[in-house]
């Protein structure tokens, strides 16, 4: 990924060096780490459980998808437009993460982190190009555990019966017998 500022200045006159945009990213990432810390700790705990052991692979897959898209698209223009949308998304995502910290709900913090990454992509590439890279960013949702209200509705007897009836009705629409539908439930 090429980090650039809007005007293309480098850190030293006449010599190739780090651009202003790269320096800002280097400062922003560690500065935001404390805001997302509660979410990271919860993710590491969740990834230790067997049902979420796939979690550490998802960021790697998302990075691969992002790099594949970068390779298939032409080079991004140096002066991108619509970066204000990304800045607004970064500010909103930090607000969401801080709300999750105040409420002590790690899921909200991690959703804020994914929004934050999306904002950084839009800041880097501008709106027109950045929105093309949102699929790998939102793919990161699969690294998160299900919210507890969804998890309990899917795994308890009442939730399982509800979803079993829905699945049986759907299979019945395709002409399955009552015995086959009962095997689903």
List the helices and strands and how they pair.
Blueprint: E1 10-12, E2 15-19, H1 20-47, H2 57-72, H3 83-103, H4 106-130, H5 134-138, H6 148-155, H7 157-173, H8 178-184
Antiparallel strand pairs: 1-2
Helix pairs in contact: 1-3, 1-4, 3-4, 6-7, 7-8
Write a structural description.
- The chain has helices at 20-47, 57-72, 83-103, 106-130, 134-138, 148-155, 157-173, 178-184, and strands at 10-12, 15-19.
- Helix 1 packs parallel to helix 3 (83-103) and helix 6 (148-155) packs across helix 7 (157-173).
- The radius of gyration is 22 Å and the shape is globular.
- It is built from eight helices and two strands.
- The chain has a two-stranded antiparallel ribbon with strand order 1-2.
- The model is unreliable at 1-14 (pLDDT under 50).
- By secondary structure, it is mainly alpha-helical.
- The protein starts with 9 loop residues before the first strand and ends with a helix.
Average of pLDDT: 78
Helical content band: 55-70%
Q: How do the SSEs run, as a string of H and E?
A: EEHHHHHHHH
User: Treating each run of at least 4 consecutive H or I residues as one helix, how many helices?
Assistant: 8
**Rg:** 22 Å
Main sheet? Answer: 2 strands, antiparallel
Q: What is the total tally of β strands?
A: 2
**Secondary-structure content class:** mainly alpha
What are the defining features of this structure?
single chain; 185 residues; mainly alpha; two-stranded antiparallel sheet; 4% strand; disordered N terminus
């Amino acid at each position: 990924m090429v980090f650039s500022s809007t005007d293309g200045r480098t850190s030293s006159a006449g010599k190739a060096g780090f651009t202003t945009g790269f320096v800002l990213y280097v400062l922003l990432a560690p500065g935001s780490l404390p805001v997302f810390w509660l979410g990271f700790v919860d993710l590491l705990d969740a990834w230790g459980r067997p049902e979420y052991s796939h979690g550490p692979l998802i960021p790697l897959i998302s990075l691969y998808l992002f790099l594949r898209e970068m390779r298939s698209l032409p080079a991004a223009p140096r002066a991108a437009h619509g970066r204000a949308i990304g800045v607004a998304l970064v500010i909103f995502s930090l607000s969401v993460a801080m709300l999750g910290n105040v409420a002590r709900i790690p899921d909200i913090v991690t959703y804020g982190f994914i929004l934050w990454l999306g904002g950084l992509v839009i800041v880097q590439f501008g709106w027109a190009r950045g929105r093309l890279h949102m699929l790998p960013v939102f793919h990161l949702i699969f690294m998160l555990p299900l919210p507890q209200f969804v998890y309990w509705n899917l795994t308890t007897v009442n939730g399982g019966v509800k979803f079993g009836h829905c699945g049986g009705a759907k299979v019945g629409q395709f002409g399955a017998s009552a015995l086959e539908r009962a095997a689903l439930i």
